[in-house]
Amino acid sequence: MTMINNKERLVQRVMPERPVEINGQEFLFKEIGYQDIKKLMQLQKEVYRGRIPWSRAAFLEEMNEAAPVFYMMLMVAKEPVAFVTARFAEGVGQISNLVVSSDFQRQGLASFLLEQVKEIGCVYGVEKLTLEVRVSNTAAQELYAKLGFETIDQIENYYYKEKEDAYKMHYLLEEK
After folding, report:
1. Is 169 in contact with 151 (CB distance < 8 Å)?
2. Domain that holds residue 118
3. CATH number at residue 86
4. In sequence order, what are the beta bridge partners of 21?
5. Rounded to an integer, what distance in angstroms lies between the CA atom of residue 6 and that of residue 4?
């Protein structure tokens, strides 16, 4: 059995595909597969005003890493409206993407997805979660702070194409 199959089984056992209700609306919470990447790229394009920060190759590279990954999305009418991606290695969970459609922002989807990452992080035995956020993205910074993330560093020109700094944030997981 390959590592990917082991990872898929763990995610399915811990986070099975299921309907979830968030603020009175029903979504399908499910694992992201290779066949979903094109739609996730379209969602990025909508949210990031024409830009696609993560290419198909970037998604595939992370999905096929030896380290465990967590790729989950929320869907409405068979279309993704939000997704989160993370990888877990050496006691750290790195959240690489958290994207919510403009039509569904500020409705609790990002909070729900981050709580799922926290839960799976505990399963993988990670001690902390980390992420980077644009200095200009104050709405995301406020959300992360509300959920217990703390700013630990500022990274100069992290978003090099736009010449924008990022804040490095982390969340310390409690042993459960």
Report:
1. yes
2. 3-172
3. 3.40.630.30
4. 26
5. 5
Structure tokens at 41: 């790229």
Q: What is the pLDDT of residue 80?
A: 97
Q: Tokens standing for 90?
A: 């050496």
- Whether 44 contacts 32, CB under 8 Å: no
Dihedrals φ, ψ of 97, to 5°?
A: -145, 140
pLDDT at position 68: 87
Mean pLDDT by 10 residues, the chain (176 residues): 42 73 96 93 92 88 87 96 95 96 96 95 93 95 97 93 92 77
The alpha-carbon radius of gyration of the chain (Å, integer) is: 16
The DSSP result for 65-123, as a single string, is -SS-EEEEEEEETTEEEEEEEEEEETTEEEEEEEEE-GGGTTSSHHHHHHHHHHHHHHH
